[in-house]
Structures are given as structure tokens and as C-alpha cells.
Amino acid sequence: MTIREMLEGTWTGSGIGSYPEVAEFSYQERLRFESNGRPFLRMEQHTTGPDGSPLHTEVGYLRFVANGRLELVVAQPTGIVEVLEGGAEEAEGGVVISLTSLVVATTPSAKRVDAVQRRFTLRGDELMTELWMDAMERGMHQHLESRLRRG
Amino acid sequence: MTIREMLEGTWTGSGIGSYPEVAEFSYQERLRFESNGRPFLRMEQHTTGPDGSPLHTEVGYLRFVANGRLELVVAQPTGIVEVLEGGAEEAEGGVVISLTSLVVATTPSAKRVDAVQRRFTLRGDELMTELWMDAMERGMHQHLESRLRRG
Question: A54, B38: Cβ pair inside 8 Å?
Fold first, then answer.
């Protein structure tokens, strides 16, 4: 089974967000990786707060390129786009996908984000997602961590 | 009625693509602008060739910011992200939205694109979309033009 096939589907669960000068918050997440048969997955994420109100959403494409390399492009309604590159390795009894931003660009009215790192740890029907960011000149810190299950 | 309300919905129709050193091609397009009540629209586009096979798809968010300005962020599975800025004006018996790229960034394995301009001309239930790009060092040329109808 390829990593593309292992990721495909809808993942749901909960997460914790934190960042310097931001109060810790919890959220529910729905993350969908969808294939149209081509060598990429369309990724769409939605999070909601404890009261069910929408918090964050983002869309993008995870590209499976030569030599086991992965590329991810993401757009966010907060006015942020990301270009990330990385790879996957077997570890911790599963597969770990690590991606580092090559470019983070923002619209004129968006908050400043300088760099992002994302990690997906896949063990069967369990997916852990982690995101670190260097935003608003506060340095690279973990921002999000969620534990999702298939379905 | 706001421009956001005027755009919201699903638009379908056909288009013509061209570019220097690329044979002219025709396509069918489905373009959806979707609201979740916040001051942006989620944009998702799919095009197919004459035989119904998928050609292109992209996702992004059109942001309605202060002073009538518009911002658009787009991600494409070809490894391209765009950040565009512009505005809307009444013209040609409708509304014309013009957007120019501030940033176009590409993954290491993607084709080079340096700049993009997009225009949406909205007249009631008719939407014309136009896209110009400066790609692969060939200069700024019109690449796409489609005429869509609501529904």
C-alpha cells in the first residue's frame, strides 16, 4: 500500500492549539485527503471550536514527486499560502511525513508568517498532525497538534 | 446585493486556452464560489477536456478586505501558489474584478510561473473569466478565457 493510499480518506478527531501570547485552545478537526487518480491528493481541513463554530479551514494539494519526495501547497482564507517540501520515512511503528516551508507568502492584510513545518504520523487508522510556525516575529514554536481517526 | 453574494454559487460553461508554443485547446469548466458566512468565498475550479477527462483544478479563497479591496490566494496541484490583490468596478453593464499577482511561488518540481493576472466580469447570471500569465520566461500572455452561466 502506498502512502497516498494510506492517507486517502476522511480523518476526524480533536486537537490542541497554542502559541506565544495566545491562550491555549482545543478544537475538533476534519481532514480529508482525496484522490482523482493523479499523483497528488487534494487536502481539505476544517476545524471547529468547542461550541461547534468554525475556527480554521485550509485547502491544498500533496504532491508525490520523484525519488520519494513530497511537496505540499496550501491556501488559507486568512490570506496565507505555503509551499513545503519533504519526505516520508518509516518510524515509530508507522510512517512519518515531515514537510518544511520553502515559501510562505501572505496578502497585504494578513498576519505575518515567515516559516511553517508540518508533520503527519500515520499508524493504521490513526493520524497525528503537528504544525509549527514562525509568525509575527515570535520564532518557530509548535502551534497545533491533533489526533485523528479514520472515518 | 454585494459582489460576494453575486458571485456565490456554481458556474459552468466552456473556455479556450492558448499560450506561446502551446496548441490552442478548449475545455469545459465548473467554478464554485462558496460562503460560510465569513468575509471570504472559497473558490474551487475544475476543467475537463472534450472527452470529459480532468484537465486542471485549483482551490483558493477570495477575501473581501477594507476599502473595497480584494485579495485572492490560490493553490494548484501543479505545484503553484498565488497571492493576488485587486478591486472591483462597475463597467460593461456589470462588475469587473481585476486581480494582479503579488507573489507566485512554485514547488521545486513545478514549471516556472513569474506572474498572473485574473479578471472576472460578472453580468447577472453570466460570468466571464480571463487569466494571463508570465510563465517559463515567455512573457505575459493571455492563457485562459471562459464564459460561464450560473447553475
Answer: yes
Please count the residue pairs, one from chain A and one from chain B, whose beta carbons lie less than 8 angstroms apart.
114
Residue B138: CB atoms within 10 Å: 14
- Over the stretch B1-15, which tens digit does the pLDDT of each residue have? 899 999 999 999 999
Q: Are A41 and A74 in contact (CB under 8 A)?
A: no
B6-29 mean pLDDT: 97
d(CA A74, CA B74): 8
pLDDT tens-digit map of B53-82 = 999 999 999 999 999 999 999 999 999 999
Cβ distance B82 to A83 less than 8 Å, yes or no, reads no
CATH of domain B3-150: 2.40.128.20
Which residue type does B75 have? A
Q: Count how many Cα atoms sit within 13 Å of the Cα of residue B14 in the half-sphere of its side chain.
A: 7
ipTM of the shown complex: 0.95
CA dihedral sign of residues B139, B95, B83, B80? negative
Search chain B and give the residue with CA nearest A53: B36
Percent of chain B scored above 90 by pLDDT?
93
CB A60 within 8 A of CB A72: yes
At residue B112, the pLDDT reads 95
Determine which helix (DSSP H) or strand (DSSP E) holds A30, and give its type and residue range: strand A22-35
Contacts of B106 in chain A (CB under 8 A): 83
Give per-residue pLDDT as tens, B37-52.
899 999 999 999 999 9
Q: Find the CB nearest A77 among B63, B80, B81.
A: B63
| Class of the domain covering A3-90+103-122+135-140 | mainly beta
Choose the closest CB to B73 out of A36, A63, A76. Answer: A76
Residue A135: predicted pLDDT: 96
